[in-house]
Amino acid sequence: MKTNFLLKLVGFTLSILTLVSFTTASKLSVQDETVVNAVYDGHEDYGYNFIAKNKDDEEYTITFQEVKDELLKEFDLKSETLIGKRFSITYKTRTEVTKDDDGYEDEEEINIIIKLKKM
Known about the structure:
It is a single chain. Helix content is 29%, strand content 45%. It contains two helices and six strands, in the order H-E-E-E-E-H-E-E. The longest helix is centred in the first third of the chain and has 28 residues, at 2-29. The N and C termini lie far apart (71 Å).
């Protein structure tokens, strides 16, 4: 009777620990949102380019490979009418790992616009 109780207790404890570890792992995979103010610089085959400034007031280009569909309906980023316009961009970055023919891993960061606001 006591052995049966101990086995059930150990099984229950292991179940809880397993569930907690899955919850922790999923939280780690969620990436934070980043907000940047930038000027739209146009669309290329590889993505949508924006010019932003860092804290030292130096310009840099940030490319977004993906944009939410509803944002593309609201803002025609493939046309030239928005080039030079300033935006507040909220985005996430996803890292994709692929292997080449030699088995080496290659990491690519994919920037995804999730909110876009014209300033």
